[in-house]
Amino acid sequence: MIVDIDQILKLEEKYNLYDDTIEGIHYWMYARSELCAFILPRIENPEVGKAHNHLKSKASFWGKVWGLLYNSIWNGKRKAFQAEMCIIGHERRIWENNEYECKYTKEIYEYYKDKAIILERPYNYGHLKPIGEEEKVVYLDYISLLCNFHYLFVKNFRKRKYREICNEVETHMREPLKELNQEIGIHYTMAELQAYLAKIILRNQTRIRQMEKLLDKIQPRSIMEVVGYSNTCMAANEVAKRKNIITYEMQHGIAGHTDYGYNFKTEKALPQLPSYFLTFGDYVEGNIRFPVEKEVRSVGFPYLERKVMKRREAKKEKDIKTVLFLSSGQIGEHFSQLACRLAELTETEQKCNVIYKLHPGEYVAWEQRYPRLLELEREGKIRVIDSSDSDLYQLFDEADVQVAGTPTTSICEGLAFGLVTLVYDFYDLTKISFLFEEGFAQKISDTSDIQPILDAVTGSTGKKEENWRKMWKGNAMKNIVNVIEKTSGVKGMSNY
């Protein structure tokens, strides 16, 4: 059982945590998403693992520092120039057309490229290159570096100040933490919370100051962002509100009523949230409680729309079916067993190709974590995708059946390609319950039972792409352009 989000939301409302500040920082707003989604343990389900492998960077401490410092000097704020639009895309780009692209903002940037500048957070202490428009990209490494420096300086050399902040945390969070521990059973200590929130407060003091300086230099009229609950985007939103800059967040995952990042127990617009939340489809609006300044608006997903249209036209029937597994670090230990059992079938049994797509957070350590998967890959019985160089949509094009391990956006993307869809019922599937209610997907409850997958391969189960536009609104770029031009006045090309 996962911690009930409504319990957290009620507690936030009770103690007015959204508005509470320490040292001028809305500490809970900057901490809540990570605190709730990753730090809070999974109640009564200790087998749920981590979404990301925190050992994914092999660089030494000083290697990481040098990476941030190098990018700060050579591609930091000195490159910033005035532009009407800032784009804070997803730093985990995909390989496409001989370069790394942000699939959420690529089309938007191309339409507004003469008036846009890209702000990019570091990914694993570096950046994926090449990206095609390097001269239009400002790396935000220097902000990360200054945030960490400020935090470490205060912690180690201004110890009195650090203790004062920790004492403030205890004063503000004593009762909320007591209630979390007693009623939910998170077993989180005050010392742990003090250390975490002190770091959040000190880092974001610097982050907000630096973001304000950067936006003063660029003077944008609008900001387009991805992963709005990241500290970078929240700081940008907070500063933008003070400067009357319109902000838009482009949906990047399945947003539902169990997502901490998109659900709040208040109707008051919060300054750390965007002005507009632009969603993939109509299904989102009724499934989140997201108090943005303006509105949540359904626009679609330009990248997906382009890919689906192109590949649906070229789709051909195949003699041998392909099953695509979409893994995740939270359940990979169990989920990989399901793929292995399917790959272990003999030639005389049901024959199909098996592809196992690892989540980026699993890339580094999967060979140690999933030894049987590694054995089968070496035997040529399964194909493991352990790099972002592979195009997920190409895998969708190859596949006939997709089996997902967690409620990921990829499930809905696969449906747009007409894939029969199954989901392993081990993790909390509440936020994609509509898929089962509509008959677009079915659950698998046991990793030893591969029969539902075999039935899907033979075509005896599953519902394909009917009504997929409930999830993906058409004419995406036209919709996005209309919103931006009507609300911020920024004009792009004249195609729309």
Q: On the 0-100 scale, what is the average pLDDT?
A: 87
The portion of residues forming beta strands comes to: 5-15%
The assembly state of the depicted protein chains is single chain
Q: First CA to last CA: what distance?
A: 47 Å
The rough form would be described as: globular
Question: Which features does this protein show?
Answer:
496 residues; alpha/beta; seven-stranded parallel sheet; globular; Rossmann fold
How would you describe this protein?
The protein has 496 residues and is α/β, with parallel strands linked by helices. The chain has two domains: 1-301 and 472-496, no CATH class; 315-467, Rossmann fold. It has 17 helices and 15 strands. The radius of gyration is 23 Å and the shape is globular.
Q: How are the SSEs ordered, and which strands pair?
A:
Elements: H1 5-14, H2 27-39, H3 61-75, E1 85-88, E2 94-96, E3 99-101, H4 106-112, E4 116-120, E5 137-139, H5 141-157, H6 159-184, H7 190-218, E6 222-226, H8 231-242, E7 246-250, E8 276-279, E9 295-298, H9 302-314, E10 322-326, H10 332-343, E11 353-357, H11 366-369, H12 371-378, E12 383-385, H13 392-398, E13 401-404, H14 409-416, E14 420-424, H15 433-437, E15 441-444, H16 451-457, H17 476-487
Parallel strand pairs: 1-4, 1-6, 4-5, 6-7, 7-8, 8-9, 10-11, 10-13, 11-12, 13-14, 14-15
Antiparallel strand pairs: 2-3
Helix pairs in contact: 1-6, 2-7, 3-5, 5-6, 5-7, 6-7, 7-8
Compact overview of the structure:
The chain has 496 residues and is an alpha/beta fold. 41% of the residues lie in helices and 12% in strands. The protein has helices at residues 5-14, 27-39, 61-75, 106-112, 141-157, 159-184, 190-218, 231-242, 302-314, 332-343, 366-369, 371-378, 392-398, 409-416, 433-437, 451-457, 476-487; strands spanning 85-88, 94-96, 99-101, 116-120, 137-139, 222-226, 246-250, 276-279, 295-298, 322-326, 353-357, 383-385, 401-404, 420-424, 441-444.
